[in-house]
Design brief:
The chain is an alpha+beta fold. It contains six helices and twelve strands. The protein has two domains: about 200 residues, 2-Layer Sandwich (BirA Bifunctional Protein, domain 2), CATH 3.30.930.10; about 50 residues, SH3 type barrels. It is an enzyme of class 6 (ligase).
Length: about 270
């Protein structure tokens, strides 16, 4: 990825960076390093992925010029804490984007950790656990982050956008900011002890907070009002039958969909 470098804060914390012109998946490479005993922190970035993927095993289009990056971390505590890293990653990503563009009113976080631009998906996060070989080796996690910098994929089940709407920045310039913002949010998180403070910051950027929301689960759809996220990061929906805590699911925000104009059709 052209121009990719670590930010000054990340460099001062001993974070490492490896850059590839092409790779199967930055997450897969980071997992291989972790399973081989690398404790991180290590960023793997690539100009292009041949097997990029997102949540729930879905493919992730890795268009040249977009940001494809994964961070390997370990030693943060028990595996049960790992899902909280998704909120740290989402907060770091939107923080880097706001610093780069100033578009604070156009960027938002969609639970659990997507970044939206004008209500359309701009960035996503994929967390994967790593258990190194060897007795007593600390549990690790790979935090994969993809940002549509120059183009967004077509033919998706949801609207997507890219940074060309805001005039940049390049993937390399954005990564330097992201690496520093990640160190900042990980320090705030502090192995889970700072999740309450991180949660409050996350809620300050939450898309659809207080409005209608749908959580589409494998066997049902839960509809109601987006009340908050709880102390464990679960989505809390106020429904007609009471409060529901959602741990995972596809989230739909009707107000955002209604606000998007219909695409022009040829005559």
């Amino acid at each position: 990825m052209e121009g990719a470098r670590l930010g000054d804060r990340a460099l001062s914390r001993g974070v490492r960076l490896e850059i590839y012109s092409e790779i199967d998946s930055t997450n897969d490479e980071a997992k291989r390093r972790g399973e081989a005993g690398d404790a991180g922190p290590l960023w793997i970035v690539a100009a292009r992925q041949t097997k990029g993927r997102g949540r729930l095993g879905r493919s992730w289009s890795s268009l040249t010029g977009n940001l494809h990056a994964s961070l390997l971390v370990s030693g943060f505590g028990p595996a049960a804490l790992a899902p909280q890293l998704g909120f740290a990653a989402g907060l770091a990503t939107i923080g880097a984007l706001i610093e780069a563009t100033g578009a604070v009113d156009r960027l938002a976080l969609k639970w659990p950790n997507d970044v939206l631009l004008d209500g359309e998906k701009l960035a996503g996060v994929l967390l994967e656990g790593v258990q190194p070989a060897g007795q007593g080796a600390p549990f690790g996690c790979v935090i994969g982050i993809g940002v549509n910098c120059v183009a967004s994929p077509a033919d998706l089940p949801y609207p997507a956008s890219d940074l060309s709407r805001l005039g940049g920045p390049s993937a390399g310039a954005l990564f330097a900011l992201l690496s520093d913002k990640m160190e900042e949010t990980l320090a705030l998180w502090a192995g889970g002890s700072g999740f309450a403070a991180l949660r409050e910051r996350w809620l300050g950027h939450a898309a659809g907070l207080g409005g209608e929301i749908e959580a589409r689960l494998p066997r049902e759809t839960v509809s109601g009002l987006f009340e908050t996220i709880d102390a464990d990061g679960r989505l809390i929906i106020s429904t007609r039958s009471g409060r529901r805590a959602i741990e995972a699911g596809d989230i739909f925000l009707p107000a955002l969909a209604a606000a998007r104009p219909e695409p022009e059709r040829g005559r």
